[in-house]
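User: Round two. Same drill as before: sequence, then structure, for each protein.

Assistant: Same drill it is. First protein:
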Amino acid sequence: MNFKTLTHQTLLPAALRGALAFLVLGILSLVSIGAPAAAAPEQDRVTLQLKWRHQFQFAGYYAALYKGYYWDAGLDVEIREANEGEDPIQQVLAGRADFGVGTSELLLLRNAGKPVVVLAVIFQHSPLALVARRDSGIRSLHDLGGKRVMIEPNSAELFAYLQREGIASDSLQLVTHNFNVQDLVAGKLDAMSVYSTDEPFELGEADVAYELFEPRSAGIDFYGDNLFTTEAQIRKHPDRVRAFREATLKGWAYAMRHPEEIINLILTQYGDRHSADHLRYEAKAMERLLQPTLVEPGYMHIGRWQHIADTYAELGLIPAGTSLDGFLYEEATVGEGDRTRRWLMIALAAIVLIAAGSAYVLRLNWRLNASRERQRVIIDTAPLALIVLSDDDKIQDWNQAAERTFGWKLEDARARNLLDLLAPDTERAAMRTLLDETRREASGSHAGETWANTAAGRRIRCDWRFAVMPSSDGRQHRVVAMAIDVTAQRELESRLQLMAHADPLTGLANRSLFYDRLERALSLAQRHTGPIALIYIDLDDFKQVNDTQGHEAGDIVLRTVAMRLRRLIRDSDTVARIGGDEFVILLLDVPDRDAALIVAHKAEEAVRMSIEVRPAQFAHIGASIGVSLSPQHGNTAEALLRAADAAMYRVKHAGKHGVAVAHGNDANANG
């Protein structure tokens, strides 16, 4: 180990965010030193097969993984990119992956007897297109005749496009697709299939003039990048499928709202095959195809799939009247009535938000003296909690969304004081201030965020908007309040901030958070608390596991070691992964040297236990462990780490697998 590299890393700003991240990941099963530990819940391991290499095209899956949605759903997900010459759909059908991403050609495979089932649609409009060099003399699709064209596998919609335009595929010089747009740039090709969200960026960068031909221009408007699985997967693991789908769609919703964050995640976690600018181009281009502001992620309509089936039938690719039975995941499909209701809710939400945003509009609408029936419809169908208060803060009316948010029926809430019903003792002053300011400054709306009680005894975080509504007699001034439950959103924001301090593989604190906690622990130890101890753990024979059993087995070993180490420590202590196979435990308020050694020896025993990496296949490793304590071995982070590192190396050089306590001069060792 290069200790200088370890101790001279640039540290991120201090934060308390790591602990919450661990809670969200469901991995803090901490007990006091020496106490028996409860078993941590096992995550369901599944594999997602992408249809191509890592890029923004798959942003939602990365968000679901790194923001903890999969983990929260009980899933340990591996996202596997496609390799050249590999059919991603066949990977799923062959059982080498549990879920996959495929084109609308899945419908043709279903007709051919393949048990594929579409779980969700990601692209509302397929990005698959043909791009041609303008200097090849190609100005229309009919100019492709006799030209060198690459068309990727599973692109039936492109062949349908050509067929509808009267262009026989055998009139083209078809070339095996290598997914390298540089062949087009270099003039080795005349045209190729591309994603309209991707390759045009490279052509623009290379200053190559091109023509883009999209199937939609011929009325072939297919879905794209469909999440799918198999009938067997749904039959054997229905809860897994449901959880994976829901977590995935949460990831897509987040990714499209926070593209810059996901771009940075892709660059740091999956390499720089595409530049940041390229990924931004992809994200922007995807907006018009996913339509995230209009359509919720995963939305698919059985009528649209029927249109796709009819198009294929028209072109002779499947029989007319092909049944869609079993092809679409039942919980994901919606009918026209559902779609109409969804659009109605969107429209009503827009009305409510506009009204709540301006007191002038509220007063104007009230003065219009709309019929009581229309007011009732608007209030009851609004997707946000709306509450009408009298001038003494008693609830006169609230809608169905308020019933869902707070749990009380209207008849139970009516005539009760808003503060008495909803405000916890700690929040009464804040809500009182909001109400007073609203009445005092009658123009405009007033906003605030507080905790609120619910009928079930829970507390939720609410974002409030208050505005004055004069009554029809002009004497009373009622207040209308709009409340949004933002509890999950605030928790998510906190978790996303905290994720920067968690190791993505194990969920442990990373080097940055560990250094921050160590520095603060040393500062507190000198003033208030007792001594601290560091336990430096370097895995023995870990490289052999990677070399002989594969990196997947190595990852299982690291996650298992992390889980076992977490079980050994108290709530106040920290275990961190600070290198590839290096871990550190920080113990606070250690009564004596022996207490630290007890934990160190338990850590050595925990690592030494065999680890199952595949059914009936085990990995066997050990650990060299060094222990240092403050103030005996130093009062700075660097001194304690150097001392523990030197003690660890004495174990390593003596034959590995053991524990050693630092010597008095180890803090000055070079490591």
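Second protein:
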Amino acid sequence: MTKTSKKFHAEPADEPVSEHDLEAQAKKLDQWVHTQLAHLSPGLSPISLSLAFMDWAMHLGQSPGQQMLLMKEFLENANRNLLAAAPETDARFSDETWAQYPYHVMKSLFKAQSDMVQKATQVEGMSDHHRQMVDFFTRQWLDALSPSNWPLTNPNVLHKGVDTKGESLLKGWQNYLKDLENTLSNTSLQPDATLKPLPYVVGKDVAITPGKVIYSNHLIELIHYTPTTAKVFAEPVLIVPSCIMKYYILDLSPHNSMVNYLVSQGHSVFMISWRNPDSNDRNLSLEDYLRMGVMEAMTATRKASGSDRIHAIGYCLGGTFLSIVAAIHDHDHRNDKPRRGKAAPKAASLHPDDLPELASVCLLAAQTDFSEPGALGIFIDDDQLKTLREGMAEKGYMSGKNMAGAFQFLNARELVWSQKTRRYLLGEDEISMDMMSWNADHTRLPERMHNEYLIQFFLHDALAEGHYKFEGRGIALMDIKAPLFVVGTLRDHVSPWKSVYKIHLLTDTDTTFVLVAGGHNAGIISEPGHPRRSFQMDHAAKGHAWMDPDEWAAKAPSHDGSWWPAMHDYLKHHSSKQVAVSSLPKTKSLGDAPGNYILMRYAD
């Protein structure tokens, strides 16, 4: 007993765990569990998803009358679809073989069932957010179950398999194995240097409009494109692309490059190229993107062009950034005006003194009011953002691959199921396109900036409701005095056009609104000569009254072709004169376009 006791007392006592360490370990454990659960629900919060479907199930469960009406309508629709010979509007069933038995029966029952299930999601009493989530995920589920996605229920797959003696099915299986191998090898642990080359090489096949990098900081490179005309408009054009994507969506191949088009029309064009961030950039803020990004680019453009006035074009999130900077730019001018006969005390300027005047502001598929964010709204609530923050806290950034997957998820019918059907069941190779190559060139977002963006804009709609602050001072879009040229796209899953249109509520400046056929990317990249392009355009003078978007769409004149010439005419109208290219100030080149930041790629 004595020896045992002596031995026991000789051992050093364990260090007590501090309360702070215990809390940190508990928090780390919770975050790990939440992250693992999020992996099972495409990065979304399983709690939010569960609450939404519980809300729906409980309300539908106590509505037996609505259930009976839904079943009655299902039977009527199924019978009508079986007997009717109406033209097929769903591209998945457009082939004439779907009109044959038994595929006509499968298609008719599926369409009737889809209609019934989608109507069943619209139950009175549910919260709007839960209704939107249930409706969205129900559509995803229905799209996955479509008979067009399965080999034994798709007549095109069976007929092609017979016609090719099984070669199409073999090729499809090979495509699947190839994609699986690429997916397994392309992990976040993969060295960036070993990434598979893009189908269209940046600087060789795309982003080849000649130019020079004339300014650089930690966040941006600024490119000045080489003029191709003897004279250019005195007011240069600065393009602010979205940092969610690589800038060369606006400088793809020469025939569909917006940059190349503007240069050919006599504009002196500058472009921001955002740095692709890594974990060391986790603390870059939204204000950093506004000041180091947009404002410093504007100042550098003024210095390089020698013009005190510039045109600015912002695309997607770049347009949101630009609208804030435009409001900041005019903020001091309005607040310095006398109030009730007394001069207002002059406040410190929120922007650099050498910021140029804005001759016009063009916003392309850019939201400023986030109260109706469309399908993106399903990702936005307190618990969803908590899950997202926990995922970003591990790395210090929002993964480009995850972000691309989320956008693909929004249009899964075309970007997932139809594509996989062609590739795996029909054995067809993907048609290589510059935009598809660009779409695979992912970008990241720094943790702090992305958190601030989602919380302030998507969750609290601070910009539209007057709560947004820049360096502690309130900013509102009503301060914008520059004329606006605003573009929305008809089938936009990222920036719904009616949401973009609501800038009419937030400003009273001269506004030209354009509604373009197409989606978020294809509608903007609408070069002259592209078939089946059209747009509507109308103008609202300064001090305009409100017009409902549906009423606007019913009245606005329609035009065939690309909207790019209309943008050029607008820029020309708001420019003062043309100057000889040789008279432009010379600036020191930091290298050739497309620069270095655009070439930064990561596995995730």
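Residues 211-338+348-399+442-599 form a domain with the Rossmann fold fold (CATH 3.40.50.1820).

User: Perfect.
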